[in-house]
């Protein structure tokens, strides 16, 4: 840059919203608009003479080194490379780094790197994805995400000749509970029910080790007071009944709500792959039918789908 324009360009650099680094021939920092590397999660570290590799988490250094090699490989013209900061920089930050090879530019003779902290954006994106997949009250999968997981599990069971069961759970008389205690109390009861269902799966030893999914992905809140539960690697269909009975016992234990003791029960319908259905839709439909049969026979019980 010539002397007449130097104040103009210096002002632009100093007021850039994103940090700017220039890397020398050895790819170490020779110029920086940063006083320290706080943006990298390392406050107090002087950037001059350091390498970008110093700030990347170990598992991402090879990827960053490859990115820098690609930048260096094209010195013929100003060329823009982008490195998405997927790496977990110390301090938990996520960065986007964009490098332009200006080694042949007489005023720069280096590689210019701009850094953008996108941590909040990545967190917001992750939260949005989680909100789409999981119910906010119970933490269980939403029905759409559960369906995706179940399609995978059914395909796995079909390939390996394994049993898989779907439990359709409905809280008995929950509308009356809501009317008597209020929706806030009803939500608290649903949340406690979800904890008990989850804990039953965590403590269960009848469905085998090596589950395909995390517990939260094996249970879905279908809306209101209905849940579907997937049991994989059963060994025997009988084991699904053992799990169902444990759930009935766990949920029926009294709840303390605002100083009052409340008893709530559930009814469970069971459909087993492959005898009660070979598709996700058929299994869920037949488990739902079995659940209504359980309600008609007295509630607080489980019933298997009755084949016609």
Question: Can you put this structure into words, describing what you see?
Answer:
This protein is 39% helix and 24% strand. With 308 residues, the chain is of the alpha+beta class. Mean pLDDT is 82; it is low at 204-216.
List the helices and strands and how they pair.
Layout (H helix, E strand, L loop, with lengths): L5 H9 L5 E4 L5 E4 L28 H12 L7 E10 L3 E10 L7 E8 L1 H15 L7 E2 H18 L3 E8 L2 H8 L1 H21 L11 H4 E5 L2 E6 L6 H15 L2 E3 L2 E3 L3 E8 L6 H17 L5 E3 L4
Parallel strand pairs: 6-8, 12-13
Antiparallel strand pairs: 1-2, 1-5, 3-4, 4-5, 7-9, 7-12, 8-9, 10-11
Helix pairs in contact: 5-6, 6-8
Provide tags for this entry.
Alpha-Beta Plaits; Beta-Lactamase; elongated; alpha+beta; 6-stranded mixed beta sheet; 308 residues
Model regions low in confidence, pLDDT < 50 over at least 5 residues: 204-216
Helix content: 25-40%
Number of helices: 9
N-to-C span: 86 Å
In short:
The chain is of the alpha+beta class and 308 residues long. It is built from nine helices and 13 strands. Helix 5 (174-181) packs across helix 6 (183-203).
